[in-house]
Amino acid sequence: MPKITLCNRCSLDARSNSKVCGIHPEGVNDNYCIDYIRDPDIKEEEQWSPFRLFI
């Protein structure tokens, strides 16, 4: 199975093209991994919009 989107922000990610992670080297079967641990060193991407709501 390929990497899911959570893999890039997980502390268990292998950061490799050949392995997904140390726990699931082949990947997970679902869209969510029960072993996901957020990596505190990776900053979340800021989600912004160029549109502002004026009230």
Provide an overview of this structure.
- The protein has one domain.
- It is elongated, with a radius of gyration of 15 Å.
- It is 0% helix and 0% strand.
- By secondary structure, it is mostly loops.
- It has no helices and no strands.
- The relative contact order is 0.27.
Write the layout of secondary structure elements.
Blueprint: no helix or strand
What's the gist of this structure?
By secondary structure, this protein is low in regular secondary structure. Helices cover 0% and strands 0% of the residues.
Average pLDDT, all residues = 81
The rough form would be described as: elongated
Q: How far apart are the termini? A: 47 Å
Strand runs, count: 0
- Helicity level, as a percent range? under 10%
Strand content: under 5%
Helix count?
0
Question: Total domains, how many?
Answer: 1
Largest sheet composition: none
Structural class: little secondary structure
Low-confidence stretches: none
- Compute the gyration radius: what is it? 15 Å
Name the descriptors.
55 residues, little secondary structure, 0% strand
